[in-house]
Design a protein that fits this description.
The chain has 9 helices and 12 strands. By secondary structure, it is of the alpha/beta class. The longest helix is centred in the first third of the chain and has 14 residues. The chain binds S-adenosylmethionine.
Length: 311
């Protein structure tokens, strides 16, 4: 069985089906990410693209708008009781994926703290599209191949389609990947071919950053130190065992601890779909670690590491 993908905007405008005969999602090319921004359902289309896409580490950029409204309201209650309203609040919301949950929290926070700088970052929100004739190859910042588009096919090279259902797709992908793609990558690495940069933030987050200078989009790796100190650092749905090893968790906690101003707040938690219970909490920075000041659900999935952490 052959699986084709969605390669251009006109297919979407003409009402193409998003599922194939097996009921599996068709790959919606990441190269359409900037083109869908003008569509009325831009955020929905962007979400669909990112749901199938994964970065070079195989990590999905998966999130939903209004994912943790109740948790946000409760966290805000703590922030309000903690900082004076006139404070110029510096917040770093890390690992925001496409940034929609960051927009949600920014909107609520700015009502209480109008003087605000809100940085929403992700591990690496940029990808680069190389194009030659019909072929488009999307690569990461390290030139790792993430997607190959060869109409009518869209191959996700990191999270691949099933061999069992689509063996022919794999033979076509392998042929393109081994015989055609390398010369394109070589030209790019020699500087002979220009790439188009795509920022994988949701249209609503990109628009907010354009219209409100208090909301900033950026890049940050939680395994690296923060480059300034913040009143609040938030890390939602990322401090899970699928992302980090035990040693890495302690590294992340060390970075968060030193990235917070004295008595700053660390907000963290994990949940599933939009509106589901968040297991997490709000922590206060202490001289050597963190003290939990509020718990939601059963607490953070890494609560034991947070309580063991000693600077
Ligand atoms: C499931 S999403 C969470 C998005 C959003 N915070 C939410 O709660 O809906 C996890 C995000 O963590 C990011 N991530 C994974 N490892 C990271 C790291 N070392 N530094 C920063 N972000 C990372 C991924 O790129 C992905 O966008």
């Amino acid at each position: 069985m052959l699986k084709t993908g969605i390669c251009n905007l006109s297919q979407i405008k003409n009402g193409v089906k998003f599922k194939d005969l097996f009921g599996k999602e068709k790959n919606l090319s990441i190269t359409l990410y900037d083109q869908i921004c003008q569509e009325s359902n831009a955020d929905e289309l962007a979400e669909r693209i990112l749901l199938l896409f994964s970065d070079e580490r195989g990590a999905y950029k998966r999130t939903y708008a209004k994912r943790f409204e109740e948790f946000d309201q409760a966290s805000l209650g703590h922030i309000k009781g903690y900082f004076e309203e006139k404070t110029s609040l510096y917040i770093h919301d890390a690992a925001v994926s496409d940034g929609r949950t960051a927009v949600d929290f920014f909107e609520k926070t700015k009502e209480l703290f109008p003087k605000l700088e809100y940085l929403a970052s992700d591990f690496n929100p940029k990808v680069y599209v190389l194009e030659k004739g019909r072929l488009k190859v999307t690569v990461s910042h390290t030139a790792k191949i993430l997607e190959v588009l060869w109409p009518p096919f869209v191959f996700n090279t990191i999270k691949r389609d099933s061999w069992r259902y689509y063996p022919l797709n794999h033979f076509i992908r392998l042929a393109i990947q081994y015989f055609i793609v390398p010369s394109l990558i070589n030209s790019y690495q020699r500087g002979e071919l220009k790439a188009k940069e795509l920022m994988l933030f949701a249209p609503s987050a990109l628009n907010r950053a354009r219209t409100d200078q208090r909301f900033i989009l950026g890049t940050h790796n939680l395994l690296q130190p923060f480059n300034r100190q913040y009143h609040i650092i938030r890390a939602m749905n990322v401090l899970n065992i699928s992302y980090f090893t035990k040693n890495e968790f302690f590294q992340v906690l060390r970075n968060i601890h030193s990235g917070l101003l004295n008595d700053g707040l660390f907000i963290t938690g994990s949940n599933q779909d939009a509106g589901s219970l968040v297991n997490g909490g709000v922590y206060k920075k202490t001289a050597n670690g963190f003290e939990q000041i509020w718990q939601s659900g059963t607490g953070s999935p890494i609560a034991n590491y947070i309580s063991q952490f000693d600077q």
